[in-house]
Design a protein that fits this description.
The protein is mostly helical and 334 residues long. 80% of the residues lie in helices and 0% in strands. It contains 18 helices and no strands. The chain has helices spanning 3-14, 16-33, 38-58, 62-68, 72-94, 101-111, 118-125, 130-156, 160-163, 166-193, 195-205, 208-223, 231-235, 238-258, 263-274, 278-286, 294-320, 325-331. The longest helix is centred in the middle third of the chain and has 28 residues, at 166-193. The protein starts with a helix and ends with a helix. The relative contact order is 0.18.
């Protein structure tokens, strides 16, 4: 890659938070000004999301993934915060959610699944171990897809069978996880044997920020027109999302200390516990019957709240888990 494109990529990475906020704002403007484009943009969600996850997986070398399973303490902390602590927090809020079933299932879908894409970015910006999170991504994806039906049944009971079909879950797992992961590993194998493969791999990894921006723009633009008369119902869930971020900042910190993680790993655990998988679960919400169409808008609303919350997290998490003087001295920093 020439110096100028590399410099452009670096500038995008340095300003990616602003880029993401701008993409969501542009999506909102597009959705409001051209609502007829919504259905077409909705069909584009899975392709752009699949491309985004492919690039994400491409940054996880297969060999490093195997080694990551030996990092038992970090993986255990990540699993505990996401699949034990988070369901408890959601259960405490569930009773107070609006009675509308579409709203409830939207909140459950998005809060019960840990993020696997931009969490890596925000964790890194706060000094968290983005490499550990990146290596744990496939495991977190598989576990959440296996446990999500169990969690939904625990919260919704027998009503779940009338709302959710298993087909969309399987389709999402195959198209958004299995296929991108397999393609990423095939490209890694090619890159390891041929210079041409390495060039393709290097070029693909530079598209992470643009793909994330395009995904956010498409998602917001496709869902904003659906707000309509549901604005009040959607606005009601915003305080729950804010409360979730607040609680998980302290809960994640407690888990990190419980497992005696180093500071970068601890910060990564806080971020994985707080950020949710709205982009991947959105296709599941879109597959619900029309009577529950509000669920998709509820999921997207969480994204809007969360990205703003992550800007706050970048500044506050290092204060919750500060670097110790001994660690700074060992790293050679003042």
């Amino acid at each position: 890659m020439s110096q100028e494109p590399r410099s452009l990529v670096r500038r995008m990475e340095d300003h990616q938070v602003v880029i993401y906020l701008g993409a969501m704002a542009a999506g909102a403007v597009l959705g409001l000004s051209a609502p007829s484009a919504g259905p077409g943009l909705e069909h584009a969600i899975n392709p752009v999301l699949g491309a985004l996850l492919f690039v994400t997986f491409l940054q996880v070398p297969a060999g490093e993934l195997v080694r990551s399973f030996r990092d038992c303490r970090f993986l255990a902390a990540a699993l505990v915060v996401n699949f034990f602590v988070v369901p408890l927090v959601v259960a405490a809020m569930f009773t107070f959610l609006p009675a509308e079933q579409g709203v409830r299932i939207g909140v459950l879908l998005v809060l019960l699944c840990p993020c696997v894409d931009y969490v890596i970015v925000f964790s890194g910006l706060a000094g968290g171990s983005d490499r550990r999170l990146l290596a744990a991504t496939p495991l977190l994806l598989v576990v959440q897809m296996l446990l999500l039906p169990v969690f939904l049944y625990a919260f919704m009971g027998s009503e779940l069978a009338d709302i959710v079909e298993i087909g969309p879950f399987l389709e999402a797992f195959l198209t958004l996880i299995v296929v991108p992961l397999a393609l990423a590993w095939l490209l890694q194998a090619w890159a390891g044997r041929r210079p041409a493969g390495q060039k393709v791999s290097d070029a693909a990894t530079t598209t992470m920020v643009p793909l994330m921006a395009v995904t956010l723009l498409v998602v917001v633009a496709s869902q904003v027109p659906k707000l309509g008369g549901n604005l009040t119902d959607v606005a009601v869930v915003v305080p729950f999302y804010v409360l979730f971020l607040l609680v998980m900042a302290f809960a994640g910190t407690a888990v990190a200390r419980l497992f005696r993680l180093d500071v970068p790993s601890g910060r990564a655990v806080v971020f994985t516990g707080a950020t949710r998988n709205s982009l991947v679960v959105l296709p599941l919400a879109l597959a619900l019957p029309d009577t529950y169409a509000i669920a998709a808008v509820v999921v997207v609303t969480q994204t809007l709240v969360e990205v703003i919350g992550m800007v706050v997290y970048i500044r506050t998490v290092p204060r919750l888990l500060p670097t110790h003087p001994a660690d700074r001295q060992a790293a050679g920093t003042p």
